[in-house]
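so the lab meeting is tmrw and i was supposed to have these ready like two days ago... anyway. pasting both below. for each one the top line is the aa sequence and the line under it is the structure tokens. i havent really looked at them closely yet so no promises
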Amino acid sequence: MSTPKNPQQALQDAITYLQSHRAALGNALVNAALAPLLECVAALNPQAATLATARRLRQVSALFLDLVGSTQLIQRLDPEEVQTVVDGAQAAFSAIVQQHGGEMLRYAGDSLKAVFGAHGAAGTRKDHAERAKYCGLALLAEAARRGDDIKPRHGFEGLCARVGIHTGGVARGGEMENDNSLSGLAVNIAARLEQAVPAGTLRISVDTYRQVQRRFDV
């Protein structure tokens, strides 16, 4: 048997819903609807009101990368070699993301998630889609270089990367990952693009394309 939500939880759910649908509803409507909700939250719990405000929607470019062939390679290497190859690649990828003004949000095995335009000084810049695209190409080049190095040393061919990028609105903060948490359809689309792209290539969404079409041949 279900039990009714307490008022504070119901308010938080409503705020999260509005934030995640800002792109569809429009800033003016969402801001107007949020104002009385945030006042109610503040009255019930000032700390929760601060958290709700922190989880505002941002327009970002999300990037997902998968290191293709790493599972097969790991089966052929000693643990020390695995650390050198895979961990070394991840460190190089992280440095490339940072060089392009992005943030590393999470490693998951041989995959990574990064975001551009969500935080700090870089979050105020409007070129996050362009930086994400340049970063994606640099990541592919780095993975290909490492694949070429591994081939003569370990007799393995096929290590490369695939990358997916999507530009859209996300809500940041909260949940188990705290500030590293991004929620919204934009994150899911970027992940699906990475899963669908052929190995060694990059796929961007139409929304990202609209932002970069004058600077890249697509």
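ok protien two:
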Amino acid sequence: MVPLQAYTSVGSSADGTKLFGVSNGSGLIYASTNSGATWLAHITSGSGGLYQVVMSADGRRLVGLGSYYTNKLYTSTDFGVTWRANDLPTGPVGARLASSADGNVLVYAVGQAAQTSAIYLSTDAGAHWLETDAPVTNWWALAASADGRRLVAAPLVGGIYSYYSPQNPTLDIGVSPGTIELSWLVPSTNFVLQQAAGLENPNWEAVTNVPVLNLTNLHYEITTPAANHKAFYRLAPP
């Protein structure tokens, strides 16, 4: 059973099997891989632990803000056992953090009644950050769509702001004996999977297989027999 104490952040994987709780000020994160039946404690970042943690949909990646006045972002790819630190553009006191389903797109801002901040965006899991053109204000809440293309932010006072990036989703392709496995994160807008035999004057045709939503990682997936010739695939607007 997880200890009864104060927690600054809790979260769950998309399928509910992986759970975590960040202990307030102890430098520990409690993690469960069996829907809370048993828990393990891991040391996080030192310096008082983490302030806020978000988790990828499949539970493989944890991303947390360093607590107090440390301007660090901490990332774990083994569910809290080990952590890697990256610099943040500003200090994380009272900060807000949101993530895409795969943890690659992160949005971050400082949110306190007496402190204003820009909103910063990373598309490489926190390795690099860009300041967005959002107003500099007291940001209080952030959210991201599964693919990270749609962002929503709310200040302490003053409505809700939204942002949309129209980039196409990334298509992941895997090959196993006799089959091709195609997958992509649930997109913010509709896309159609297409295929062509070549890239010189291609004749793109829609793939008729119906994609299946994998609830463990929020990916649409299609498995198709491997052809005896070259095939190219893309995601295109309908």
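from a quick look at the 2nd one: The mean pLDDT is 86. Residues 121 and 227 are 40 Å apart (CA to CA). will dig more after coffe
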